[in-house]
Amino acid sequence: MILPMTFFLAFIALAIGLAWWWISRVAVTPPQVAMMALRIAFPGGIRLGDPERAVLGLAKPDEIVIPFDRATLRISYPLTVPATVPIQASIPWGFTCGEIVRAICEEYENVYEAEEATAATKTVPREERTERPERNRTDGVYGIWGHDLDELVLTSLRWTRGTDGLVEIELHVEAQPRGAGAPTPAA
Question: String of b and e for 136-153 (b: at least 16 CB within 10 Å)?
Answer without folding.
Answer: eebebbbbbeebbbebbb
